[in-house]
Amino acid sequence: MATIMKDAEPFAFDGGDVGVLVLHGFTGSTQSMRYLGEGLHRRFGFTVSAPCLPGHGTSPDDMETTSYLDWLGAAQKALQDLTAQKRKVFVTGLSMGGVLTLNLAARFPALVSGIVPISAPAGVLPEAIAEVISMGQAPTRIPGIGSDIKAPGIKELAYEETPVACLRQLYVLVAATTDLLHKIACPTLVIHSREDHLVSMANAKRIAASVSSDDVRLLWLNNSYHVSTLDNDKDLILQRAGDFFTELARS
Fold first, then answer.
1. Which member of 56, 193, 226, 228 is catalytic?
2. In terms of CB atoms within 10 Å, which end of the chain has fewer, N or C?
3. Domains of the chain
4. What are the tens digits of pLDDT across the range 51-65?
Protein backbone atom coordinates (compact mmCIF):
# COMPACT_ATOMS: atom_id res chain seq x y z
CA MET A 1 0.00 0.00 0.00
CA ALA A 2 1.34 3.43 -0.94
CA THR A 3 2.29 5.82 1.85
CA ILE A 4 -0.06 8.78 2.29
CA MET A 5 1.64 12.16 2.48
CA LYS A 6 1.45 14.25 5.62
CA ASP A 7 -1.77 16.33 5.70
CA ALA A 8 -3.36 14.14 3.00
CA GLU A 9 -4.74 11.60 5.45
CA PRO A 10 -8.47 10.89 5.60
CA PHE A 11 -10.19 12.62 8.50
CA ALA A 12 -13.44 12.26 10.40
CA PHE A 13 -15.15 14.12 13.24
CA ASP A 14 -18.03 12.64 15.22
CA GLY A 15 -20.84 15.08 15.92
CA GLY A 16 -24.61 14.97 15.88
CA ASP A 17 -27.02 12.70 14.04
CA VAL A 18 -26.51 14.49 10.70
CA GLY A 19 -23.47 13.68 8.59
CA VAL A 20 -21.59 15.47 5.84
CA LEU A 21 -19.41 13.61 3.35
CA VAL A 22 -16.55 15.83 2.16
CA LEU A 23 -14.73 14.97 -1.09
CA HIS A 24 -11.48 16.42 -2.42
CA GLY A 25 -10.43 17.08 -6.01
CA PHE A 26 -8.44 15.49 -8.83
CA THR A 27 -4.69 15.04 -8.02
CA GLY A 28 -5.39 16.85 -4.74
CA SER A 29 -5.96 15.62 -1.21
CA THR A 30 -8.01 16.04 1.94
CA GLN A 31 -5.79 19.01 2.81
CA SER A 32 -7.89 21.17 0.49
CA MET A 33 -11.06 20.23 2.39
CA ARG A 34 -9.88 20.21 5.99
CA TYR A 35 -10.80 23.83 6.76
CA LEU A 36 -14.34 23.25 5.48
CA GLY A 37 -14.66 19.86 7.14
CA GLU A 38 -13.42 21.05 10.51
CA GLY A 39 -15.66 24.11 10.34
CA LEU A 40 -18.76 22.09 9.53
CA HIS A 41 -18.05 20.03 12.64
CA ARG A 42 -16.90 22.70 15.10
CA ARG A 43 -19.22 25.55 14.09
CA PHE A 44 -22.29 23.59 13.03
CA GLY A 45 -21.98 20.30 14.93
CA PHE A 46 -22.12 17.91 11.98
CA THR A 47 -20.47 14.53 11.86
CA VAL A 48 -17.92 14.79 9.04
CA SER A 49 -16.23 12.13 6.94
CA ALA A 50 -13.49 12.94 4.42
CA PRO A 51 -11.87 9.97 2.67
CA CYS A 52 -8.63 10.19 0.73
CA LEU A 53 -9.56 8.86 -2.70
CA PRO A 54 -7.54 5.99 -4.23
CA GLY A 55 -4.36 7.11 -5.94
CA HIS A 56 -4.46 10.51 -4.24
CA GLY A 57 -2.26 11.90 -1.52
CA THR A 58 0.48 9.43 -2.41
CA SER A 59 2.25 9.75 -5.78
CA PRO A 60 1.45 10.13 -9.49
CA ASP A 61 2.81 6.59 -9.99
CA ASP A 62 0.22 5.28 -7.55
CA MET A 63 -2.50 7.35 -9.18
CA GLU A 64 -1.78 5.79 -12.57
CA THR A 65 -2.91 2.42 -11.20
CA THR A 66 -6.42 3.77 -10.48
CA SER A 67 -9.45 4.75 -12.54
CA TYR A 68 -12.63 6.76 -12.07
CA LEU A 69 -14.34 3.57 -10.90
CA ASP A 70 -11.93 3.43 -7.95
CA TRP A 71 -12.56 7.07 -7.03
CA LEU A 72 -16.32 6.70 -7.39
CA GLY A 73 -16.33 3.40 -5.51
CA ALA A 74 -14.50 4.92 -2.54
CA ALA A 75 -16.89 7.86 -2.42
CA GLN A 76 -19.88 5.53 -2.64
CA LYS A 77 -18.59 3.35 0.21
CA ALA A 78 -17.97 6.41 2.38
CA LEU A 79 -21.53 7.58 1.70
CA GLN A 80 -23.02 4.21 2.57
CA ASP A 81 -20.95 3.98 5.76
CA LEU A 82 -22.11 7.42 6.86
CA THR A 83 -25.78 6.87 6.03
CA ALA A 84 -25.72 3.64 8.05
CA GLN A 85 -24.97 5.73 11.15
CA LYS A 86 -26.80 9.03 10.67
CA ARG A 87 -30.36 10.33 10.30
CA LYS A 88 -29.53 12.49 7.29
CA VAL A 89 -26.42 12.82 5.13
CA PHE A 90 -25.29 15.70 2.92
CA VAL A 91 -22.41 15.71 0.44
CA THR A 92 -20.01 18.43 -0.65
CA GLY A 93 -16.91 18.30 -2.80
CA LEU A 94 -14.35 20.41 -4.64
CA SER A 95 -13.74 20.09 -8.39
CA MET A 96 -13.70 16.33 -9.10
CA GLY A 97 -15.06 15.96 -5.57
CA GLY A 98 -17.96 18.10 -6.77
CA VAL A 99 -18.46 15.76 -9.72
CA LEU A 100 -18.56 12.80 -7.34
CA THR A 101 -21.03 14.75 -5.20
CA LEU A 102 -23.34 15.19 -8.18
CA ASN A 103 -22.91 11.55 -9.21
CA LEU A 104 -23.84 10.22 -5.78
CA ALA A 105 -26.88 12.50 -5.56
CA ALA A 106 -28.12 11.29 -8.95
CA ARG A 107 -27.57 7.60 -8.26
CA PHE A 108 -28.52 7.41 -4.58
CA PRO A 109 -31.42 9.83 -4.05
CA ALA A 110 -32.59 7.97 -0.96
CA LEU A 111 -29.24 8.45 0.76
CA VAL A 112 -28.35 12.06 -0.12
CA SER A 113 -30.48 14.83 1.43
CA GLY A 114 -28.66 17.80 -0.09
CA ILE A 115 -25.47 18.70 -1.93
CA VAL A 116 -22.95 21.51 -2.32
CA PRO A 117 -20.75 21.02 -5.40
CA ILE A 118 -17.86 23.51 -5.43
CA SER A 119 -15.92 24.39 -8.62
CA ALA A 120 -17.34 21.28 -10.26
CA PRO A 121 -16.88 20.59 -13.99
CA ALA A 122 -19.96 19.60 -15.97
CA GLY A 123 -18.69 18.96 -19.48
CA VAL A 124 -17.18 22.36 -20.30
CA LEU A 125 -13.44 21.65 -20.14
CA PRO A 126 -10.55 24.10 -20.61
CA GLU A 127 -9.24 24.03 -24.18
CA ALA A 128 -5.74 23.06 -23.05
CA ILE A 129 -6.97 20.00 -21.16
CA ALA A 130 -9.40 18.99 -23.91
CA GLU A 131 -6.53 19.19 -26.40
CA VAL A 132 -4.30 16.90 -24.32
CA ILE A 133 -7.09 14.35 -23.88
CA SER A 134 -7.75 14.23 -27.62
CA MET A 135 -4.10 13.92 -28.68
CA GLY A 136 -3.21 10.60 -30.27
CA GLN A 137 0.40 10.79 -29.07
CA ALA A 138 -0.12 12.63 -25.81
CA PRO A 139 2.66 12.67 -23.20
CA THR A 140 2.19 10.36 -20.24
CA ARG A 141 2.46 13.30 -17.82
CA ILE A 142 1.74 17.01 -17.95
CA PRO A 143 2.56 19.64 -15.31
CA GLY A 144 0.39 19.62 -12.20
CA ILE A 145 -2.90 21.50 -12.26
CA GLY A 146 -3.22 22.15 -8.52
CA SER A 147 -2.95 25.34 -6.46
CA ASP A 148 -5.06 27.69 -8.57
CA ILE A 149 -5.37 30.00 -5.57
CA LYS A 150 -5.62 33.79 -5.46
CA ALA A 151 -4.57 34.25 -1.83
CA PRO A 152 -0.79 34.79 -1.59
CA GLY A 153 1.32 32.18 0.15
CA ILE A 154 -1.33 29.46 0.14
CA LYS A 155 -0.50 26.16 -1.56
CA GLU A 156 -2.65 23.15 -2.25
CA LEU A 157 -1.20 19.73 -1.45
CA ALA A 158 -1.48 18.31 -4.96
CA TYR A 159 0.72 16.45 -7.43
CA GLU A 160 3.38 18.34 -9.36
CA GLU A 161 2.65 16.05 -12.32
CA THR A 162 -0.68 14.96 -13.76
CA PRO A 163 -0.96 11.48 -15.31
CA VAL A 164 -2.68 11.94 -18.68
CA ALA A 165 -4.29 8.49 -18.43
CA CYS A 166 -6.05 9.63 -15.26
CA LEU A 167 -7.03 12.91 -16.91
CA ARG A 168 -8.85 10.84 -19.51
CA GLN A 169 -10.53 8.90 -16.70
CA LEU A 170 -11.68 12.20 -15.22
CA TYR A 171 -13.16 13.15 -18.59
CA VAL A 172 -15.19 9.93 -18.65
CA LEU A 173 -16.44 10.56 -15.10
CA VAL A 174 -17.44 14.14 -15.92
CA ALA A 175 -19.23 13.12 -19.12
CA ALA A 176 -21.12 10.29 -17.44
CA THR A 177 -22.11 12.49 -14.49
CA THR A 178 -23.24 15.35 -16.72
CA ASP A 179 -25.68 12.92 -18.35
CA LEU A 180 -27.11 12.16 -14.89
CA LEU A 181 -27.70 15.73 -13.73
CA HIS A 182 -31.42 15.61 -14.55
CA LYS A 183 -31.82 12.85 -11.97
CA ILE A 184 -30.73 15.08 -9.08
CA ALA A 185 -33.83 16.05 -7.09
CA CYS A 186 -32.34 16.99 -3.70
CA PRO A 187 -31.69 20.61 -2.65
CA THR A 188 -28.54 21.86 -4.37
CA LEU A 189 -26.23 24.78 -3.62
CA VAL A 190 -23.78 25.32 -6.49
CA ILE A 191 -20.67 27.32 -5.53
CA HIS A 192 -18.25 28.64 -8.13
CA SER A 193 -15.62 31.34 -8.49
CA ARG A 194 -16.12 34.01 -11.11
CA GLU A 195 -12.41 33.75 -11.92
CA ASP A 196 -11.57 30.04 -12.10
CA HIS A 197 -8.65 29.14 -14.37
CA LEU A 198 -9.49 25.43 -14.57
CA VAL A 199 -13.28 25.14 -14.58
CA SER A 200 -15.23 27.97 -16.18
CA MET A 201 -18.41 29.57 -14.84
CA ALA A 202 -20.32 27.88 -17.67
CA ASN A 203 -20.08 24.61 -15.74
CA ALA A 204 -21.89 26.01 -12.71
CA LYS A 205 -24.60 27.46 -14.92
CA ARG A 206 -25.04 24.08 -16.63
CA ILE A 207 -25.37 22.28 -13.29
CA ALA A 208 -27.92 24.78 -11.96
CA ALA A 209 -29.94 24.58 -15.17
CA SER A 210 -29.82 20.78 -15.51
CA VAL A 211 -30.73 19.39 -12.09
CA SER A 212 -34.42 18.72 -11.49
CA SER A 213 -34.49 19.89 -7.88
CA ASP A 214 -37.08 22.47 -6.83
CA ASP A 215 -34.44 24.05 -4.58
CA VAL A 216 -31.39 25.14 -6.58
CA ARG A 217 -29.17 27.97 -5.36
CA LEU A 218 -26.08 29.48 -6.92
CA LEU A 219 -23.33 31.26 -5.00
CA TRP A 220 -20.71 33.18 -6.99
CA LEU A 221 -17.35 33.84 -5.35
CA ASN A 222 -15.67 37.16 -6.14
CA ASN A 223 -12.28 36.77 -4.49
CA SER A 224 -11.06 33.23 -5.18
CA TYR A 225 -9.78 31.03 -7.98
CA HIS A 226 -10.42 27.29 -8.48
CA VAL A 227 -9.32 25.92 -5.09
CA SER A 228 -11.74 28.20 -3.28
CA THR A 229 -11.89 26.06 -0.14
CA LEU A 230 -8.35 27.26 0.63
CA ASP A 231 -8.75 30.73 -0.85
CA ASN A 232 -10.03 34.14 0.22
CA ASP A 233 -13.67 33.03 0.23
CA LYS A 234 -13.20 29.92 2.37
CA ASP A 235 -15.11 31.45 5.30
CA LEU A 236 -18.00 32.42 3.04
CA ILE A 237 -18.13 28.86 1.68
CA LEU A 238 -18.14 27.44 5.20
CA GLN A 239 -20.88 29.77 6.40
CA ARG A 240 -23.16 29.32 3.41
CA ALA A 241 -22.69 25.54 3.20
CA GLY A 242 -23.18 25.20 6.96
CA ASP A 243 -26.31 27.34 6.94
CA PHE A 244 -27.67 25.39 3.95
CA PHE A 245 -27.14 22.01 5.58
CA THR A 246 -28.51 23.26 8.91
CA GLU A 247 -31.67 24.51 7.21
CA LEU A 248 -32.17 21.17 5.45
CA ALA A 249 -31.44 19.15 8.59
CA ARG A 250 -34.28 20.93 10.39
CA SER A 251 -36.79 20.47 7.59
1. 226
2. N
3. 11-246 (3.40.50.1820)
4. 999 999 999 999 999
